[in-house]
Amino acid sequence: MRFENKVVIVTGAGSGLGRVLAHRFAEEGAVVVVADIARGRAVAVAEDIFDAGGDSLAQTTDVADASEVQAMVEATREAYGPVDVLINNAAKATDADFLSLGEMKWDADVATTLKGSFLCSQAVLPGMLEQRYGVILNISSVNALAYYGNEAYSAAKAGILSLTRSLAVRYGPSGIRVNAIAPGTLRTPAWEERRRANPEVFERLNRWYPLGRVGEPEDVAGAALFLASGDAAWITGAVLPVDGGLTAGNMQMMEEMIEGQGE
User: Fold this and answer.
1) With the CA atoms of 223, 227, 231 and 237 taken in that order, what torsion angle do they form, in degrees rounded to the nearest 10?
2) Where do the structural domains in the chain lie, given as residue ranges?
3) With contact defined as beta carbons under 8 Å apart, do 181 and 242 qualify?
4) What is 7-261's CATH number?
5) Distance between CA atoms of residues 180 and 155, nearest Å
6) 28 and which of 3, 75, 191, 216 could share a cystine (Cβ 3.0–4.6 Å)?
7) Is 53 left (phi over 0), alpha (psi -120 to 50) or beta?
8) Catalytic positions
């Protein structure tokens, strides 16, 4: 098992992608700290991991609150020792139109998504520096690479890519690797409200993806396990799109361009 006896924190681990990441790391032998702003969700995931034979610690944490982040990392250290792997997954996105996007909603998206990644990274780094080993994996988004709406969320996710490169260069000499994943659309509870409003939303989105479908959390989990493991020992400062080919190009646009040339 690739993460036997490793201590892994996953933020936003109470549902969606975070929940799948927590389970997958536990299956690979990691001790998983399930951090989520909703206590009930964190406890439920930790209990599921225990029931499956793993070891886990539930932590109720608002990643935008420095004192809560510090308390979470200290509880982890007291229970298991220094953190080996941090997965910055917690995020927040508002659907408000840009012109009606209020300052409070902007701040909320940026605080959870970008500030949270900063605070969690800052909190675990002293322990990683002490042991001269550690991995920080930031979950960004294709929204950081091109325009797909959600301006506040997208700006925060783009900031995560800059943070990834900065930490990778600054702390690489100390044995710490920092990478990012940029997922495309994933079939998670975050999309449930849209799916209820439009049951065919995923079918409509499928045509934009060269691989013909939106993603599943498991698609990202496989990439995360690789980047956090020794198999990626010489990879740092990288951004891996896990997006079914979305950012590689637009087939429908190309077909329409070629079709237009024949007119």
Assistant:
1) 140
2) 7-261
3) yes
4) 3.40.50.720
5) 15
6) 3
7) left
8) 153, 157
Q: Are 138 and 88 in contact (CB under 8 A)?
A: yes
- The SS3 call for residue 31 is strand
Write out pLDDT tens, residues 90-124: 999 988 889 999 999 999 999 999 999 999 999 99
Q: Which helix (H) or strand (E) holds 29?
A: none
Alpha-carbon distance of 112 to 125, in angstroms, equals 19
Q: In what order do the strands lie in the sheet with 31-36?
A: 55-60, 31-36, 7-11, 85-88, 134-139, 176-183, 239-242
- As beta bridge partners, residue 65 has none
The pLDDT tens digits for 31-81 are: 999 999 999 999 999 999 999 999 999 999 999 999 999 999 999 999 999
Cβ partners under 8 Å of residue 7, min gap 6: 30, 31, 33, 76, 80, 81, 82, 83, 84, 85
Other C-beta atoms lying within 10 Å of the C-beta of residue 100: 7
Asked if 241 and 145 touch (Cβ cutoff 8 Å), the reply is: yes
CA distances 105 to 111, 112, 116, 138, Å, are 10, 11, 15, 22
Q: What's this model's pTM, rounded to 2 decimal places?
A: 0.95
Token pair listed for 114 = 């970008």
Q: What are phi and psi of 58, to 5 degrees?
A: -85, 135
